[in-house]
Amino acid sequence: MFKKLLLAVATLVATMGFAFAQVDVNKADQTALDGIKGIGPKTSKVIIDERTKGGAFKDWPDFEKRVKGVGKKNAAKLSQAGLTVNGQALADAPAAAPMAKTPMAKAPAKTASPMAAPAAASAKAGASGAASASAPK
């Protein structure tokens, strides 16, 4: 049972690594392009056909110009999802969206427990008593 759980966790971790990997449009095959959010089989085929016909994409503007259906907004989304052109993300694309903040319950204010007061008082008394006992008379 433990081995199965360990295998499941290892598989999950490996899959997460692929989800965040950068994919260069000039080097990727159809499967890798399909892995980018926003690119399906049709778009990946168009990208590969255009790359075969016209050569490697020089930069993002070249990519946007040659691939039908990819404009500035779509290019920004694709870049944010991990697509690169010659290893470069789109310069003016927004950074990856931060994780949504979920409202967290506030921790209760620290209050002294009923047992803390007598313990604190006896500690003070013990400290003052020890100090007076060791002081010369």
Give a structural overview.
This protein has a domain of 74 residues: Orthogonal Bundle (DNA polymerase, domain 1). The protein has a two-stranded parallel ribbon with strand order 1-2. The chain is built from 6 helices and 2 strands; from the N terminus they run αβααααβα. The N and C termini lie far apart (72 Å). It is mostly helical and 137 residues long.
Write the layout of secondary structure elements.
Layout: H1 2-19, E1 23-24, H2 30-34, H3 41-54, H4 60-66, H5 72-81, E2 83-84, H6 116-134
Parallel strand pairs: 1-2
What is the overall number of helices? 6
Helix content: 40-55%
> How far apart, in Å, are the first and last alpha carbons?
72 Å
Spatial sequence of strands, sheet with the most strands: 1-2
CATH architecture of the domain at 11-84: Orthogonal Bundle
| SSE run | HEHHHHEH
Structural class: mainly alpha
Average residue pLDDT: 74
Kindly report the CATH topology of the domain at 11-84: DNA polymerase, domain 1
Low-pLDDT segments: 12-19, 97-102
List its traits:
137 residues; DNA polymerase, domain 1; Endo/Exo/Phosphatase_dom_1; DNA binding; mainly alpha; 2 strands
